[in-house]
Amino acid sequence: MEKGYVQIYTGNGKGKTTAAIGLSIRAFGAGLKVSFIQFVKGRYTSEMKSFEKLGIEFFQGGRPEFIIGKPGKDDIDAALKTLEMAREKVSSGMYDLVVLDEINVSIYLGLISEEDVIDLISKKSSRTEVILTGRYATQKMIDMADLVTEMREIKHYYTKGVEQRTGIEV
Amino acid sequence: MEKGYVQIYTGNGKGKTTAAIGLSIRAFGAGLKVSFIQFVKGRYTSEMKSFEKLGIEFFQGGRPEFIIGKPGKDDIDAALKTLEMAREKVSSGMYDLVVLDEINVSIYLGLISEEDVIDLISKKSSRTEVILTGRYATQKMIDMADLVTEMREIKHYYTKGVEQRTGIEV
Lengths: 170, 170
Description:
The structure is a homodimer. By secondary structure, the first copy, chain A, is an alpha/beta fold. The first copy, chain A, has one domain (about 5-150): P-loop containing nucleotide triphosphate hydrolases (Rossmann fold). Helix content of chain A is about 35%, strand content about 20%. Chain A contains six helices and six strands, in the order E-H-E-H-E-H-E-H-H-E-H-E. Chain A has helices at about 15-30, 45-55, 75-90, 105-110, 115-120, 140-145, and strands at about 5-10, 35-40, 55-60, 95-100, 130-135, 145-155. Chain A has a six-stranded parallel β-sheet, with helices on both faces. In chain A, helix 3 runs parallel beside helix 5. The first copy, chain A, is globular, with a radius of gyration of 15 Å. The model of chain A has no long low-confidence stretch (mean pLDDT about 95). At the A-B interface, helix 1, helix 2 and strand 6 of A face helix 1, helix 2 and strand 6 of B. Strand 6 (about 145-155) of chain A pairs antiparallel with strand 6 (about 145-155) of chain B.
């Protein structure tokens, strides 16, 4: 693309990761070069199969053993490795769209620092669109972004006792 | 699926249609049967190519000539035909996920009536998840849904004069 921007999807509602998936699918359909990088997540999710079929680059940087909570040294090492890979892709000028899924949560959990992510964004190639998703986007990140959308939960069926369903939630 | 719910993505922010695309891609990856039906829209969008490649059912019900504003008789006829097709799919019990993209906007524009959509939802097969997207979801629709997410615009680069870009916005 000629010019890429920085987008954030945050908030407590559904649709943050799926919006990033949808954008990747749209971009790929337009012949753009896409990389989808998941922080935190390290377990198989159903979208991976569709990405594989289409040949869209997809990478999971979390450890399957990681449970949301206080991260261990292995979790932090894994996150730093993912961040390094993300930095290369975002700055390379080779991509039209790079998704950094759940990167906001990674900062919140202490897996990576806000400064490192801001540094990564400052090194972004001007042609690359970067999408940062996850709850708890910080004010500094919001200030830095061009487009910020809050997914706000108005009503949720979890209160009805619905479990995570394969193909819908994961 | 065993049990499907009714989800709404509404609000003035980005990510409503892309979240529905992402959910379709996830569901398809899990081997679920998906139909993606677009109301209002009648012009080629980049995601269509990816859907075609994967073999996900995709249908555009809008007329290419339609410009947001007061709809003509042809526009209303096209919307009613799309609604009828949607009703069949939603009630058939053949689908795990049916997306009715921009259906909220169709009501708002007077292309279809709120009553018709509520009637459609009431006839939903219990195994089918239905996603309704678009701005201006009505209170009655929200009351009827199991899960409602508002995409809220916090910051938008349109103020910087960015045009709609192929692969990102369309």
